[in-house]
Amino acid sequence: MEAFPWLDIRYVKIGYKKETPIGQIRKDLWDGIMRVALADGLYSQPGTEFIGINHDIDTMQMGRHYIRNVQRFYLQKQKELFKSELAENPLPTAYTQVKHAYPFKTHPNVARALVWHDFTFRQQYRNGLYEEGLVVPFSTYAQRGGFDPQAVTHETHAFTPDAYVGIPGTAMDTSPRRYIVRLQEHGYKTIWTKDSFGPMDACRNNLDSAVDISKERLQDVVFETLETHLQTYVRGISPTKWQDIINEIVWMTIDGDSGLSAYEQGLPAIIRSRVEPRLRLARRVLREVVRLPIVADLVDESYIAHASHESAAEILKAAKKEAESYTQG
Coil, strand, or helix at residue 173? Predict the structure, then answer.
């Protein structure tokens, strides 16, 4: 406060019992901020908003323009509401581009597991996915009743953005400590559980003695969820590209186009042209970054063909369903 006297910094000290849920702690903090915003008159007229960002002690570094880009995002959202004469509507929540810090110097195999995990989900959720970095305007916070005080984990669930909206230009690194402690025993699937998250969590201790996972364990961890992760690469394809194909099939179906059968037969090849680059990217990351050539080799020609046919079947099913709704409606 002495170094930055122009900043409005306020704090309060509160004591909690060890078993107090994180939802209660976070709710106390955010409720207090909301009351300050109201008392300071920040909501005394339409078009004003107070923005909250869900950060943790795990935050290790933030991009230089992180806050600026959050502000710009919401200024634009406010302008859109004004143009629509909806200035008093709550603003949407959004993610920021949080990823883990990668401990290559101390735990290189954990770091590779994290790179694969983060990079995979960034394919589908380009501008963020994690609870840390979730941005919640206080108008929306109030409308949804704030945080659940009973929530032990995932207390931000009620504020998940529609369509996983994220804010570009908001890079931030969060600590890999939970993965360092739990990846060996739990893999990706149960890094976060209600019984493991709390003030006595092992990852809150000094991690100097925590050993890296072996290359063999890294391979097992990646293999356990490989199918799910590869599907995420495919789902990273722009929905508009899929919709263009669906629209083509729908109109051909409605018009009784004689070329529909031939189009459907050629659909796997059309789908493959979109799927193959995504899966080749996954294979390259597995081979060159994660350094698991054996696992990378599983993403071979037969797998790419299988994934293309599966995607084609899903697209065809969605198109038929959409065509039925037109004809029946």
Answer: strand
